[in-house]
Amino acid sequence: MTDLPLNGAAGAIPDFPRPARSILETDARTRARNRAEARFRAYGLAALLVGLFFLVLLLGSILWNGMGAFMQTRMTLEVELLESELDPEGTRDPAVLAETSTFGYGDLIEAALVRTVAATGVQTGLEAGDLDDLLSSGTAARIRDAVIADPSLVGQTVTFDVLPSSRVDGYIKGRVTRESLANDKNLSPEHLDIVDALVAQGTLDRGFNLSFITGADASEKRPEEAGIGVAMIGSFYMMLVVLGLSLPIGVAASIYLEEFAPKNRFTDLIEVNIANLAAVPSIVYGILGLAVFIQFAGLPQSAPLVGGLVLTLLTLPTIIIATRASLRAVPPSIRDAALGVGASKMQAVFHHVLPLAVPGIMTGTIIGMAHALGETAPLLLIGMVGFVASNYPGGVLDGFTSPNSAMPAQIYEWAKRADPAFYERAWGGIIVLLVFLLVMNLMAVLVRRRFERRW
Amino acid sequence: MNDMRLFERAATVDEVKIRAKDVNVHYGIAHALKDVSVDIGDRLVTAFIGPSGCGKSTFLRCLNRMNDTIAAARVTGAIELDGQDIYDRRVDPVQLRAKVGMVFQKPNPFPKSIYENVAYGPRIHGLARTRAELDEIVEKALRRAALWNEAKDRLQSPGTGLSGGQQQRLCIARAIATEPEVLLMDEPASALDPIATAQIEELIDELRQTYSVVIVTHSMQQAARVSQRTAFFHLGHLVEYGETGDIFTNPRDPRTESYISGRIG
């Protein structure tokens, strides 16, 4: 030990003020640090709460606006299918019945409406021709289809389940009021008197709207008939293409880059470009798809096959980045162990490294697919716009090439249309899409849990 | 140090298994190993000792071309196994590694069952034609690695569930299941407790009956306990190589003496 004076009088140790103090009392410095920490925690908590608030607001407004699309007003209508109008010669031949256009059913429906209204006992100033506005403009087509499918109906009085028009539906759901109809040429308050009476009578009621989930898109005049089912099929086929192409290509590219490729300027360039591709706006992929797949390669327009190809390009960087990260996360000792017992490089990768990377690859793939499922912009450029999704594909393989849309493009199409009933369906479509994304993300979590690395 | 044992274990067989001549290793611009020439005997335990970063592990990894997996590593000079150059263009490192097995510092069993760990090597090298033959190879390897009694009832449970010492013996079993001729061990006991270390050392002494064993170790006591020959590496040079007894009791080079007496390293 040295024998320096402890008070530092000799100047060897600078004499900083360091008052002796009990550890039971905190000094000013410690208090300031504690305050800073408390403040920081409060900021973090506040940020979290703000985020949560907006999330709840978003989900709440989606559910609030979209749930209506899952309910649909229906009406029972007894239509007298007069033989004199539909089949004067009495052949009951579907080909002959098909000669009568939907206009031919107009009078029958009108007559049925007049009878139905008369049965309610409501005194109305509306003319018989105006009563049509109560029903969907697709009603005649529906009844005609039913008649052609079953010619024996002609000559009978048949009870049909028909869809009221979107305004009536809106009134039942509370979207349309008597006041809002003041400036609306499609429906008048007198119609609503009839609707009230029909509801009281039980002729008109509300039920779960299965056809929204299974149905096809309908024209701008018939929002009550529009469904997201066909677009869902389009999305499904695109996801098949995306999964079938991007998983093998992405995994093979990642394994090559991570395990086999020499590290040189060329592979560096590829790496930088893959990282950059992940940041390219999706619409760029859309126009690329239009130029290469449709205009150059001559693939059909609006086909889920082309959509899937474009989305594959979009998903590849995500899958490659995720796969490389999970390959890199496998400890090198596993590779050493395999090489040490005389496994070839490929055996080491496929027997030991890849199985351990599978959970990461699967998660990356599912996230990439979920991303692709929600992509809209590139689809619009290759013709997969919403209104194309108005027919089911003819067969299983036909689903790849027949014109179709996808869920997000369908939602965009509906959001763009004038009738507020389409707006409601857009929100409903978002709920369907979110359910899909939620399921996919849940799958990613489960896969992660199930195959968590075990070393 | 147990000096009594040192002298009774003088090398009795004197066939050269591996002959290294003027081996140099560069990692990029770093010169990791400088002009190392050494003859490694068959059925002997050869220990490489030296301070950290002296090149002993690098040299060990040259002996089964594990350095090939490091892109920046460049090996020059000649290393011969039974008189054949292992860096010859015609040599496939995969075949070489089946002959020259390796056990690593950290126990690294595959995240698979104990059985699968041992069976993997024989399977990829096609050493067994039937399941029964494979069972036999696995049992033999586990017995020689002194793990059979502990593992026989849990062959299907994961190898990663064993204790550290058991895991390392499993790795040794895995290495000897492919019937190598040389067994390289890179600090096999450095991650283990003294009891597990003693078991491994006992095992190494037994393996010497069949294999040429090369062991890298930080512990001079371990080198003295298990080896017949010792090589002392310092700053990439092979400073001294000889009978273990001579190195520890009568070192010729002052650096060796400093190291074993604890003044450097």
Automatic annotation (TrEMBL), chain A:
It holds the Pfam family DUF3333. InterPro entries: DUF3333 (IPR024573), MetI-like (IPR000515), MetI-like_sf (IPR035906), Phosphate_PstA (IPR005672). The keyword Transmembrane helix applies. GO terms for cellular component: plasma membrane. PROSITE patterns: ABC_TM1. Keywords: Cell membrane, Membrane, Transmembrane, Transmembrane helix, Transport. It comes from the Bacteria. CDD domains: TM_PBP2. This is Phosphate transport system permease protein PstA.
UniProtKB/TrEMBL annotation, chain B:
One of its GO terms (biological process) is phosphate ion transmembrane transport. Residues 18-260 form the ABC transporter domain. PROSITE patterns: ABC_TRANSPORTER_1 (PS00211), ABC_TRANSPORTER_2 (PS50893). This is Phosphate ABC transporter ATP-binding protein. It comes from Rubellimicrobium rubrum. One of its GO terms (molecular function) is ATP binding. Keywords: ATP-binding, Nucleotide-binding, Phosphate transport, Transport. PANTHER family: ABC TRANSPORTER I FAMILY MEMBER 17. GO terms for cellular component: membrane. Pfam families: ABC_tran. CDD domains: ABC_PstB_phosphate_transporter. The keyword ATP-binding applies.
